[in-house]
Design brief:
Blueprint: E1 5-7, H1 10-17, E2 21-27, H2 31-38, E3 43-44, E4 58-64, E5 67-72, H3 79-84, E6 88-93, H4 99-114
Antiparallel strand pairs: 1-4, 2-6, 3-4, 4-5, 5-6
Length: about 120
């Protein structure tokens, strides 16, 4: 199975996700599990003033089999909730996530939860 390229440069991430929109969900996964699998979010808006109108705190950007996906919380309006209780993360992309993308996450989650 192919390994994704995790985007860690904020400018590259912004450029890659331009024109994307909501396409699906990652379910039953925590903020800490996402960090264990993908590293720190490329965009951490938790320190931004909420008056800027952003509807998300955290976003990861991943390139998998030529497709770019962003994984983010949406409209939780509560930093503590996103970090501690959120289990339903949005996926943004220009195309719908592939079966292989979901399978890769499921495999990594199983490995993580076994350890």
């Amino acid at each position: 199975m192919n390994e994704p390229r995790i985007i860690i440069d904020k400018e590259e991430a912004i450029q890659l996700v331009g024109g994307s929109s909501f396409k699906g969900h990652l379910n039953n996964i925590t903020y800490q599990e996402l960090i264990s699998i993908l590293g720190e979010p490329v965009m951490d808006l938790s320190k931004w003033p909420r008056t800027l109108g952003t509807d998300t705190f955290f976003e990861w950007v991943v390139e998998f089999d030529g497709q770019v996906y962003s994984i983010y919380d949406w409209n939780t309006f509560d930093l503590n909730y996103s970090k501690r209780y959120l289990r339903h993360w949005n996926i943004g992309s220009k195309d719908y996530p592939t079966k292989e993308f979901y399978e890769w996450f499921e495999m990594r989650l199983k490995e993580l939860r076994i350890d």
